[in-house]
Write a structure and sequence with these properties.
With 261 residues, this protein is α/β, with parallel strands linked by helices. It folds into two domains: 175 residues, Rossmann fold, CATH 3.40.50; 64 residues, no CATH class. The chain has nine helices and ten strands. Strands 1, 2, 3, 4, 5, 6, 7 and 8 form an eight-stranded parallel β-sheet that branches. The chain has a two-stranded parallel ribbon with strand order 9-10.
């Protein structure tokens, strides 16, 4: 947990890829909420989410949509003491330009701005899992905004050396930490909890196959699905009798060919 000057009744706004049903991002949010509560006691959270109802149900905190035309968003933002950009991959110029503008505004208003284990990838996400081998800097106006916002932040943590290099190449000269993903701090469930879940979902006994599929471009989808179908049939012929689909991003399943980051 970064050092933050403690006000009374601290209010924290958390910015991330929340509400989409992505298991990794929801786990990150769970850990960050827990860390702030342990460090500061009674904290008032507002999570920026694409599905506030879902976020409130899962995490038990206030959640709103990130809409710059919404009075609810601005009331919450102006009352907050800390703005946290939570980890996960942050892709593209448009995403980082928006984040940098929000961070700069928060900093000008005297709020603490924290980047927690973020992935910094300065290219546009187009549905293909392609990452350039060599880190490249943000350029132009976006590069200037990112450099100013990150340099003024209270704490900057990235999740890999690639992201570290991107910020350095963009001109950020302040201290940058390379952090483990917050989800590694999650406490694993005990045997009794695992057993009760297995009973609840009818997967006790036998041999099970767990499958997680992600939607990419149409061509890749077809190849991946055909391969997985063949693999499942082969494994079932070898004694596996249960197939369990584990969705990591619910919105992807609904959207068909859309993408998540």
């Amino acid at each position: 947990m970064p050092h933050i000057k403690r006000p009374w009744n601290i209010q924290v706004t958390i910015h991330g890829y929340f509400g989409f049903g992505n298991v990794g991002d929801e786990a990150i949010l769970l850990v960050i909420i827990d860390e702030f509560r342990k460090a500061f006691g009674n904290v008032v959270f507002t999570v920026l989410s694409c599905n506030p109802r879902r976020t409130k149900k899962i995490h038990g905190v206030r959640a709103i949509k990130e809409r710059l035309t919404s009075l609810s968003f601005w009331r919450s933002f102006l009352k907050s003491h800390v703005l946290v950009f939570a980890g996960g991959g942050r892709y593209g110029y448009a995403t980082w330009r928006r984040m940098a503008l929000l961070a700069l505004l928060a900093e000008l208003l005297g709020k603490a701005v924290v980047f927690r284990a973020v992935g910094v990838y300065p290219y546009d996400w187009r549905g293909s899992p392609v990452i350039s081998r060599e880190p490249t800097p943000f350029k132009g106006l976006t590069g200037l905004l990112v450099r100013l916002a990150v340099s003024r932040a209270s704490h900057v943590g990235v999740r890999d050396r690639y992201s570290y290099a991107v910020l350095r190449l963009t001109g950020v000269k302040r201290r940058i930490s390379i952090e483990d993903d917050p989800t590694f701090r999650l406490k694993p469930p005990g045997p009794s909890e695992c057993t009760s879940l297995a009973v609840k979902y009818g997967i006790v006994g036998g041999r099970a196959i767990g499958i997680n599929l992600r939607t990419l471009d149409a061509r890749t989808n077809g190849r991946v699905i055909n391969y997985v179908v063949g693999l499942v049939r082969e494994l079932m012929g070898k004694g596996f009798d249960k197939v369990i689909f584990i969705p990591f991003a619910l919105e992807v399943l609904r959207a068909g060919s859309s993408t998540t980051t």
